[in-house]
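TICKET: design request
STATUS: open
ATTACHED STRUCTURE:
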């Protein structure tokens, strides 16, 4: 069952869902509009092979930083993160979509699921359009559809990305 705005507000008030910072304006008809944070990591166009069993230095593959404005160049891949820190209970999962306004610019975000029990800022991949597009920290960018599971998860998320803040690179870069 997809949660409505009423369901979401009830669960936030009950403390079952945590959103920080919270602004009632991000609660939409059937989900939450999450805003962009300041962090980014650009994928570098290199010929070096990224071997997950021996990844080496992430700076060989990513240029990371923070900015209030981020320009997404044509066909470029970036990792960005949400401003909001989200904490879901073991009976709620999320489906991440790009807000339609941004999709109409040609920017693309691959399908992303947020597992039941996850908490942290979301790291998302963004793929550039045919022309440069400027993004601003704090703008509503993603739509998170919240889905109630039929029964609570027997194995809620407790993985490597739990509690993440900012952009988090693939887990094989962490020793």
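STATUS: resolved
RESOLUTION: sequence designed for all positions
ATTACHED SEQUENCE:
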């Amino acid at each position: 069952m997809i949660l409505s705005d009423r369901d979401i507000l009830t669960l936030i008030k009950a403390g079952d869902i945590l959103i920080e910072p919270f602004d009632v304006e991000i609660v939409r008809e059937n989900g939450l509009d999450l805003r962009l944070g300041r962090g980014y990591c650009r994928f570098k166009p290199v010929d070096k092979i990224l071997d997950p069993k021996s990844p080496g230095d992430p700076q060989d593959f990513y240029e990371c930083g923070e900015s209030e404005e981020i320009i997404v160049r044509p066909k470029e891949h970036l990792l960005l993160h949400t401003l909001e820190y989200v904490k879901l209970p073991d009976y709620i999962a999320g489906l991440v979509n790009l807000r339609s306004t941004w999709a109409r610019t040609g920017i693309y975000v691959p399908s992303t699921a947020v597992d039941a029990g996850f908490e942290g800022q979301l790291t998302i991949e963004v793929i550039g359009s045919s022309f440069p597009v400027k993004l601003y920290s704090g703008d509503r960018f993603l739509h998170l559809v919240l889905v109630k599971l039929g029964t609570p998860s027997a194995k809620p998320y407790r993985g490597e990305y739990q509690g993440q803040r900012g952009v988090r690179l693939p887990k094989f870069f962490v020793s």
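CLOSING REMARK: The chain has a mean pLDDT of 96. The first strand starts at residue 18 and ends at 20.
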